[in-house]
Amino acid sequence: MKPIYKVRFTVYSAITFLLLSALLFLPTLPQTQAIPSNGPVTKKFVFGDVVVETVIRGSGETIVLLPGRGLSADSFAELARLLDKSGYRAVAINPRGIEGSTGPLEKLTLKDYAGDVAAVIKALGAPRVHVLGHAYGNRVARALAVDHPDLVQTVILLAAGGRVGPRPEAVKAAEKLESPGATRTEKIEATRVVYFGPKSDPMPWVDLKAYTAASKAQGEALRATPRDSWWSGGKAPMLVIQGLEDKIAPPENGRALRDEYADRVTLIELPDVGHALVIEQPKAIAKAIHDFLKSRRNTRAAAAAR
Length: 306
What we know:
CATH superfamily: Alpha/Beta hydrolase fold, catalytic domain
Strand order of the largest sheet: 1-2-4-3-5-6-7-8
Number of domains: 1
Radius of gyration: 18 Å
Number of helices: 10
CATH architecture: 3-Layer(aba) Sandwich
Helix content: 25-40%
Largest sheet: 8 strands, mixed
């Protein structure tokens, strides 16, 4: 697979904590107008001492995209394009400390990151949105749905973790990533083992820009937030998309959500896909999202016609 766009992530400095942790208002801006489908537009929202930068593309029902730990909104570039093509407005968030987003990074919890997203949703002037979280972002998405249910219509999780820890081979490969003596060839292979399915190209995540402070703050926020306060994702209908080759957030996590909340969780498992599924299979993800939301619209329409 050839890289389609540049993704930014703290691979080496963040990996150790990510694995260990897996084991273990203010005035708003005027309503944002619909963004034409001719390309993404960057827009910043200011809430006191917090600035949240977003990348907005398309028009229609709003899907807010929350990236993985240390990732920027760029990680959603292809998925956002596909969602735009399907008739949605994709609003990708840069969390604090990444790109143009700024704000305090000390003593945060997942609830603070969720609060930033809630403020953006209110500023957009949108009705209840669909919120999508990839990897670390899936935790923020669920915290948002718990704390601000009035803003969330559905929750979409990619590479959802939180209960079942990483595979032993991922832990071993992560140690190689951290090793100062590892060769570039060894680091490429270790990146593939940790993040990608066996048929995917790991190069998009081999040389990535480091957001060290932001990644550290996100890790500390995760540790400071009890899992029971976000695991359920509130009461919103939920689509969970898991890669069957995900060694960081193994598919057992998605199955646990389905088993616990069978009345509102739809689970889709993608073969040959790892933790970086948003890069590996954006077309499959976009189709799954469109089908899920279309089915919900049809169900509501049928109920209204009775």
